Amino acid sequence: MFHAVAKDATLCPGADIRGVLDSSFTRVPADAPGKVPTGCGFWRNAWPENPAWKSVAVGLGHDTAYWTEFLCALAEADPDMAVNIEHEDAAYSRTEGLAPAAENPHTAAAGL
Question: Are 54 and 13 a contacting pair, CB within 8 Å?
Fold first, then answer.
């Protein structure tokens, strides 16, 4: 293992029907304004209005006990393991979501 990523998600109403492999994502039309390439010649899909799950800031989908266990497992593999935060919570700006996403793992690490 070289590094780890802390990324969190939460289930939304309807996940029990659609499942976590939600198939309600739709293709963004080729001529859509603001279309964003994701690499390798592919384009993103449009996010569903009512998704079965969504990305949230680290600690908002899983509690401190979960993140403590996550960090403990990483420490067993390598005590100096770097943990990168992958922030994709659309409810926060690019920088606002980093505060809870960093605070929650720090709180979890204090429980080790």
Answer: no
Spatial contact of 93 and 101, defined as CB atoms under 8 Å apart: no
DSSP string of 66-101, one letter each residue: HHHHHHHHHHHH-TT--EEE----TTS-TTTTHHHH
Could you identify the residue written with the tokens 């969190």? 8
Percent of the chain past pLDDT 70, that is, above it, reads 88
In a 3-state reduction of DSSP, which class is residue 110? helix
Single-letter amino acid, residue 2: F
* pLDDT tens figures, 48-65: 788 888 899 999 999 999
For residue 37, CA distances in Å to 3, 11, 28, 77, 86 come to 26, 27, 11, 35, 19
Q: What's this model's pTM, rounded to 2 decimal places?
A: 0.76
